[in-house]
Design goal:
By secondary structure, the protein is α/β, with parallel strands linked by helices. It has a single domain, classed as TIM Barrel, CATH 3.20.20.140. Helix content is 39%, strand content 14%. It has twelve helices and eleven strands. The strands form two sheets. Strands 1, 2, 3, 4, 5, 6, 7, 8 and 10 form a nine-stranded parallel sheet that branches. A two-stranded parallel sheet has the order 9-11. β5, α6 and β6 form a beta-alpha-beta unit. α1 crosses α3. The longest helix has 17 residues. The two termini are 21 Å apart. This is Dipeptidase. InterPro entries: Metal_Hydrolase, Pept_M19.
């Protein structure tokens, strides 16, 4: 059993109108997912930065409708997941699908828009993508500012609703502001900066803070975040796991693949079907119990929304 905390299938379906059922152009489609050991897949609402500001929320809603119309509704064995209770009670034959938000640029300055998305089932919220928005600066914004007053309102609301605040993509100052304010921080898809110097990765101080807070950390399969290159091998993911384990992160680790979010490929982790073989190859190195914790136990244990 595997839980994957991040993919961009909704963006691909919105942009290209692929068939989710069996399109070979998707690294995660229904038929591939069904054959895999991925039990629960998180689907990110990611509005591309080239969408005009006035249309961004409408596009986010379009992606929500795609999620329900093309991923949930057609399949009796795909269940919409919004709580820990639903995660635990998912039937053996079923797959779970969860909504997340990658970037609050889609809500502008309007907290009610975020409330609507939460009411629709979003259960993890990344405040930024790489650029700045009304809540905070992203990691590529040269200004490097932290949470705005509106961003503080957003985090406070997420605390009230027991929703994860996702620190992946945040500016460095934004990360620390969130850690000081959020009751439920997590990193959906980030690796170790000391092993690959991409700014989207987390440094030792950031990882230490997340581990001290018992936050969930998703190792991601983006070549540049693994080795700084445009290609990587699956085995190169292991040093990132080892690093966080040495820091005491056994109860924090998980996976956030970022399938569909990138064009570059990790050999041996091309699509969702490779996930199963990857996890099986971890068992001789880490043992069954630890692999189960990384694969799904930590995610369920730390999921903040109880019911």
């Amino acid at each position: 059993m595997i839980i994957d905390a991040h993919c961009d299938v909704l963006w691909k379906l919105w942009e290209n109108d692929y068939d989710f059922h069996d399109s070979d152009l998707l690294r995660l489609n229904y038929k591939k997912w069904k054959k895999s050991d991925v039990k629960v897949q998180c689907f990110a609402i990611f509005v591309p930065d080239d969408v005009k500001e006035a249309a961004q929320y409408d596009v986010a809603l379009e992606m929500v409708h795609i999620f329900f119309d093309r991923i949930i509704a057609p399949y009796d064995d795909v269940k919409f997941i919004t709580s820990k209770e639903e995660l635990i009670s998912l039937a053996p034959h079923a797959k779970g699908a969860m909504l997340t938000l990658e970037g609050c640029h889609a809500i502008g300055h309007d907290l009610n828009k975020l409330k609507t998305l939460i009411n629709m089932g979003v259960r993890a919220v990344g405040l930024t993508w790489n650029q700045a928005n009304a809540t905070c600066d992203g990691i590529e914004e040269k200004r490097g500012a932290g949470l705005s007053s509106f961003g503080e309102e957003v985090v406070d609301y997420l605390n009230e609703e027991r929703i994860w605040t996702d620190v992946s993509h945040l500016s460095y100052q934004g990360f620390w502001d969130v850690m000081n304010r959020s009751q439920y921080p997590m990193a959906s898809h980030s690796n170790v900066l000391e092993l690959a110097g991409h700014p989207r990765n987390l440094d030792k101080d950031q990882l230490t803070a997340l581990i001290k807070r018992k936050a969930w950390i998703g190792i991601t399969f983006v070549p540049e975040f693994i080795n700084g290159q445009t290609e990587a091998e699956w085995i190169e993911v292991l040093p990132h796991i080892d690093y966080i384990l040495r820091m005491g992160g056994e109860d924090c680790l998980g996976f956030g693949s970022d399938f569909e979010g990138i064009d570059d490929i990790v050999k041996g982790l091309y699509d969702v079907n490779d996930f199963t073989a990857f996890v099986q190859q971890l068992i001789p190195r880490y043992g069954q119990r630890l692999v189960e914790k990384m694969s799904y136990v930590n995610f369920i244990d730390k999921f903040p929304r109880l019911r």
